[in-house]
Amino acid sequence: MNYPNGIKKENTKQFINYGNRGMNLERDLNTTNQYYRDIDKAYIYKKPTPIKIVNVDYQSRNLAVIKEAYFVEPSTTDYNGIYKGKYIDFEAKETKSKTSFSLDNIHPHQITHLRNIYNHQGIVFLIVRFTNLDLTYLLMVKDFIDFIDNNKRKSIPLDYFKKKGYLIKNKLQPRVDYLEIIDSMEVLYEKE
Amino acid sequence: MNYPNGIKKENTKQFINYGNRGMNLERDLNTTNQYYRDIDKAYIYKKPTPIKIVNVDYQSRNLAVIKEAYFVEPSTTDYNGIYKGKYIDFEAKETKSKTSFSLDNIHPHQITHLRNIYNHQGIVFLIVRFTNLDLTYLLMVKDFIDFIDNNKRKSIPLDYFKKKGYLIKNKLQPRVDYLEIIDSMEVLYEKE
């Protein structure tokens, strides 16, 4: 498992997106997670984009270039890490809709993953930004599961986020202070 | 953050390695983690290999091909997840040496990461396999840090693993039962 040559140490940014969708929330979360690390509050990272590499050209001793690769569907969520010794896990999505969040945004494998983490007492939630309303909600997976298990709808209405979710205020730093919401939920610590 | 076209649902395997080094331990850990998931014991995954994507060819509506990308140095460890509600995190390495494990195998960023997770009460360790001896050790990060903070050596001798580490027996299923070792360490649960 040595690291290959051709490594680019100076730039660990991941190529992420396809159209602008999702970029802003992701950028905000990256700076937020960096802030949490800087103040030694939590260590939460975005996972690299999963890809399948088919062809690598070892152009020279010091340069490996991936020449053919494909995106693969993620089986877990994008973000996980540690906060107060506990496992934290979440998925973040943006939607342009002003009325609802389509469940097509979350893959079936990811829903299974969210259920598993919830059942194993992880701190697990969604962060959903309604970009055209400039509203960002945190929805605990318990409430997400409650919805999909009790509704045939293919989308979660904004009203459900207003009722069951937690509005994350826009701040300068950190941009998306979701741990402030988690801190306010003492219920999370009753399971122990 | 919608998933792009060109997704390969049927194959989520990651391209991993460069020469055979590390392949066997990684494969064993993947089947072990799959086994833990199958029996609903723990949800621990290998993170995708971090890469920087430079050029994507959208050949058709349904096929995106990455045409140029580079490996980037990981800032965290390869494996993390949840076990008994707690955050678990480890790095796995193979070495051909029969006498020591070179510290060149672990990047400085990763060492910082391991320290951070340890300080935040994560369950954090290394799994090191001496392939030519067929010995696989689990070394808690506490002992790893003790070593590097108190030695100028650039490698950890096998004897240190024998003294401070835990031998993981080869089993049929799961192949590398590292959680059995963790279960035996009540000390981990004294921090709460």
Largest interface, C-beta closer than 8 angstroms, per-chain residues: A-B, 72 and 72 residues
Count of β-strands of chain A: 10
Main beta sheet strand tally, sense and closure of chain A: 6 strands, mixed
Distance between the termini of chain A: 37 Å
CATH architectural designation of chain A? 3-Layer(aba) Sandwich
The structural domain count of chain A equals 1
Q: What percent of residues of chain A are in strands? A: 25-35%
Main sheet: strand order of chain A: 1-4-5-7-8-10
**Helicity of chain A, as a percent range:** 25-40%
Contiguous runs where pLDDT drops below 50 for at least 5 residues of chain A:
6-22
Secondary structural class of chain A? alpha+beta
Number of helices of chain A: 5
CATH topology of chain A: Trna Endonuclease, Chain: A, domain 1
Arithmetic mean pLDDT of chain A? 87
Question: What does this 3D model show about the protein?
Answer:
Two copies of one chain form a homodimer. The first copy, chain A, has helices at 23-38, 108-119, 141-150, 158-164, 178-184; strands at residues 42-46, 51-60, 63-71, 79-83, 86-95, 100-102, 123-130, 135-140, 155-157, 166-167. Chain A has one domain (23-189): 3-Layer(aba) Sandwich (Trna Endonuclease, Chain: A, domain 1), CATH 3.40.1350.10. With 192 residues, chain A is α+β, with helices and mostly antiparallel strands. In chain A, the strands form three sheets. Chain A has a six-stranded mixed beta sheet with strand order 1-4-5-7-8-10, with helices on both faces. Chain A has a two-stranded antiparallel sheet with strand order 2-3. Residues 6-22 of chain A have low confidence and may be disordered. Chain A has five helices and ten strands, in the order H-E-E-E-E-E-E-H-E-E-H-E-H-E-H. At the A-B interface, helix 1, strand 1, strand 2, strand 3 and strand 4 of A face helix 1, strand 1, strand 2, strand 3 and strand 4 of B.
